[in-house]
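Bit of a strange request maybe. I'm writing a small parser for structure token strings and I need a real example to test against, not something I typed by hand. Could someone generate the tokens for this chain?
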Amino acid sequence: MPAISSSMSRRTVLQPARMTLLAAAIALISACNGGAPGKDASATAQSAIPVEAAFASHQSVTANYSGTATLEAVGDAQVTAKTTGIVLKIPVEEGMRVQKGQVLALLDDDAARNKLAQAVGTLKKTQAAYDKSEKGLALKITPRADYDRDMFDLETQKAVVAGAQLDLSYTRIVAPISGVIAKRSIKLGNLVQTNQNLFQIVDMDPLQAVLNVPERDLATLKPGQPVQMKVDALSGRAFTGTIARIAPVVDAASGTFRATCEFRDTSQTLKPGMFGRIEVAYDQRHDALVVPRTALVEEDGESSVFTLEPAPPKKPAADAAKGKSGEAVAAEQNKQATPAFVAKRRIVKVGYSEGDRIEIRDGLKEGERVITIGRNAVRDGTEVQILGNTPQALAAAPLASKAS
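Reply from user aminoacidic:
Good idea to test on real output. This should exercise your parser:
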């Protein structure tokens, strides 16, 4: 994304002060013309309005979609107890990274081991009975019904042993996913119950943020497009990511669709729950004709700007020199010789906008000067005075109307 120059940033900061200066200048001109004896209404209307202007120039401009979202972890698991027992050991702490299957806590397993031992003993007894029935059936001295009963008892006892082994394994609390321990809800010596929350594990690689984008932008956003997120909690630090997927449907209630963005931060500076401002650069024009956004006038459904064109030369009045000294006459003639400009309203077609710049696709040429500050005080044909320039600089300014 192209960076905005420092001069444009300073102009943005100083704009309120310049607006105040322009308002004071306009008020001063009006007061002087209105209060001076012998001045009529036509003379007041011809007073030049002080304005500031900028040149239309070709620059690179990027089309962005901006939105806000909250970071979410891709994997977020609540580790719960599957059996009852007293906590004997906790080898992990909050903030530690764990791998899937790693032991998080150990519960008292005496009862579970005793239950397993009983089940194994019964299984051996059942196995012996089945073996005897199998040999008897082969020798045709054991009824078929007795053999089937012993076989079913053996299968049942094998299931009992498997259940006892599973209960014993539940005394070892293990991580279901890889990630970071976000929360530990137990302490040593606690008696935990079945389904009680013990730990929260968060997988922070990658983190996701979901944008709810208006349906008009459905054709502009695509999976794989780069995105940039600035996080307020980190002093506006920027992080890069990509659009992972686009929802195939539009929510009828809100008129938006979901764009899921992924961010991989190896430094682990980003945290789930952080609020970020996301920008998606979906197009770029390297040679766009741009003007400051403050030059644009939106009125009656049309976009327009006020350009500066040379005003026709003024003829000195016949009685202008009566009763004046030679120095006064010379000063008056020098004042009349100062280059003058008039504001001309121009309908334009706008394109992309970026920061305080906006693209003009039709209605304006490179080098033409547009009014940026003071445009609300002018109309089509109003004579203006450009602040911040000397008469010599104004006369030498490269106006497109002179070149054409």
